[in-house]
Write a sequence for this structure.
């Protein structure tokens, strides 16, 4: 499959890198880059673009006979991006785009054009970065009646409000820092005004409700008017304020809006912090499904673009496990018996002098270092429950320590040894 | 598309109901049920099966000339379910199944048979009920290198440990209640032993790592040995104990296991309570994606089966928004200006006698009932921040109350009025 890539920013370069190591992926065939285009050929980039044919003009690349799939990563709802996508579709090329503004504003017209030309127009990367919500809604949930979608669809806004509350800092201060760190754009208007989230919400609503996407009907209110005081007072009363995107089916039609909402702290969307995105889909008979992940960034977005490119191979029958049986070569193996991890150990010790010392000594002799220890009062049986959280050590050391303990002060009941998963 | 359904338990009946109201779904074409099969024809069921041709034998239905897609909802890794699925594939029928044990144990052989016959074998409903993780992994993430999958894949186990900790009750007690309420099977062995979660983890691992599924290599340890004491002591130290399914890529091959793990309370999997399922996929370059939802139940599982059936229509080109442009008829409309909801109101009141009374009076006059109120000390400016959480009322009443307030005691700064989303 021959692809042409227009737009060589972070995502475009991320995609080239991914194509170059495609043997590690699970693609149904080989992807070749036959041409690239961007505003400047000479700009310094993290990938070497010299192996690829250069096009000064994206639209020329879009209709090049050597391109099967045109990948648009230029951005902007109108101008060159729109013209290039239209050119590609008219030339009978499949299109993959990450351009949310383009799809939100001109998606229906482009979809009709693609339909007429019998080509694919895919835009997984346009909504929520690495979270594959477009295809989940479009294909996986085709057998469910979607009632409502809510989500946190702008990572910048969520990052700003999270940091404001956690660090007790005002909006302007946190925004300026985010700009310095590259977490927010030099011109953050599209993000903080709610417009970016609105683009994404409109696209999801059109898919979920088979609705005639009309972006002019979407109401948009941003995060820029929420102050630290609001966040702090809401927090004190057990709430969080988040910029929430919503699409809901009403008797009149689809209502789509983006606005700050107050959520109970226990609400699934309230607990999504930092720059994460999340989408909650409520439907009948599926109930509620929540997808959470990185909503932006070169890697996640390139992954989503590549997922769409993979779909273009369009085999008549997709192998049940994704790849043909002769490619399913990796073996299942039994987990290695020795693992290095922190461990949780619970024992019942006889409620008598020296029992606890025997335990800590057994651990020390095997080089196990204790992070936390909690002993509760002895129970009626005369046994006292003790729990220990260790620092990282091999499981075999834990087992050796338990064997030692058996000999010195036989614990009552079998000890419980459980691995502790790292925080993430 | 003509489907035959074998197995008419909760999920089978849920599917029939869904087919009967398919005009509300987003299917690419019409689904017809041409035959059904189950152990007993006369059993009392929530749907009327008399309109459909009855087959005493699932395998006969599987190869009936009037069936395009055979839907297997019988269960059991061997015996009639396996024979019927093999019969369907050999007869060149596509197969959709919700049978995790069958796919975990015989998935590779069945996939080879499907490949040979050039038919589809789909099993979205076999893993995590309504959560479309099979297709996300197989298709959407084909362009990402998966490194590790972790998840809570058995709702019964998660329900048991959640209730034990929350209500301070022992395992046997909570299990007996769950059985009475129908949340746990009469014979809960498959669930509490970890075997059910292991089936699902093995299937996901095979897809994620293109690995030769060998269920005999999966190590399984259940929740049945975790006591209330363990859960309680872990909680006191800031941890949760959950039955975690894991698939990880190592140098030797794929390690797949199910075991109780101790998780920091802040870990994304630690916060998934009750009967929910969740799957966390870590990959390069996508980062980490988490999918959460109902892991079982007639509705969610039937939704997943229907998603697979929808895929069988296999149009050469899938419309960009899921349905052809002429089906995208629902309008986008602007949200109604009056909404009924609880509201969050923040004002700065002048720090003087009567200001707070003016606010509460203005609210009372407009019939707005106060749920919570918090006033902080006045700031240097002489203004005191006040926040009010109301009970449900129309937005227009809030606005009228604010207009009243303007007249009596002009608040400093613009008041902030934000809708409160219901807990969920």
């Amino acid at each position: 499959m021959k692809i042409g890539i227009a737009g060589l920013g972070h995502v475009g370069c991320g995609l080239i890198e991914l194509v170059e190591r495609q043997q590690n992926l699970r693609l149904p065939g080989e992807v070749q880059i036959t041409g690239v285009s961007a505003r400047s050929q000479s700009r310094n980039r993290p990938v070497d673009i010299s192996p690829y044919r250069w096009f000064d003009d994206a639209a020329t690349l879009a209709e090049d006979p050597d391109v099967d799939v045109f990948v648009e990563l230029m951005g902007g709802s109108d101008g060159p991006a729109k013209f290039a996508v239209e050119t590609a579709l008219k030339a009978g090329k499949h299109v993959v785009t990450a351009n949310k503004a383009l799809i939100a504003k001109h998606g229906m017209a482009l979809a009709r054009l693609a339909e007429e030309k019998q080509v694919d127009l895919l835009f997984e990367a346009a909504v929520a970065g690495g979270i594959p919500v477009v295809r989940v809604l479009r294909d996986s949930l085709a057998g469910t009646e979607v009632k409502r979608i809510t989500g946190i669809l702008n990572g910048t806004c969520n990052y700003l409000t999270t940091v404001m509350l956690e660090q007790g800092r005002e909006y302007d201060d946190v925004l300026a820092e985010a700009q310095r760190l590259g977490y927010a754009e030099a011109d953050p208007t599209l993000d903080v005004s709610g417009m970016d989230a609105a683009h994404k919400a409109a696209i999801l609503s059109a898919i979920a409700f088979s609705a005639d996407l009309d972006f002019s009907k979407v109401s948009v209110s941003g995060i820029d008017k929420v102050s630290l005081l609001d966040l702090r007072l809401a927090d004190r009363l057990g709430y969080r304020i988040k910029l929430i995107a919503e699409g809901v089916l009403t008797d009149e039609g689809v209502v789509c809006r983006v606005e700050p909402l107050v959520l109970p702290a226990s609400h699934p969307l309230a607990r999504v912090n930092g720059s994460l995105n999340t989408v909650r889909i409520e439907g009948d008979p599926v109930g509620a499904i929540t997808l959470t992940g990185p909503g932006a960034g070169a890697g996640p977005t390139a992954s989503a673009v590549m997922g769409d490119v993979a779909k273009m191979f369009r085999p008549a029958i997709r192998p049940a496990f994704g790849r043909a049986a002769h490619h399913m070569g990796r073996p299942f193996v039994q987990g290695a018996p020795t693992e290095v991890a922190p461990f949780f150990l619970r024992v019942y010790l006889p409620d008598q002098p020296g029992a606890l010392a025997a335990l800590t000594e057994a651990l020390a002799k095997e080089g196990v270092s204790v992070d936390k220890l909690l002993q509760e009062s002895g129970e009626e049986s005369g046994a006292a429950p003790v729990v220990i959280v260790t620092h990282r050590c091999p499981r075999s050391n834990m087992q050796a320590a338990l064997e030692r303990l058996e000999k010195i002060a036989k614990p009552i009941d079998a000890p419980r040894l459980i691995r502790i998963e790292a925080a993430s």
About this structure: The first strand of chain B starts at residue 2 and ends at 6. Chain B is about 35% helix and 25% strand. Chain B has three domains: 2-126, 133-295, 340-419. The domain at 2-126 of chain B is CATH 3.40.50.720 (Rossmann fold).
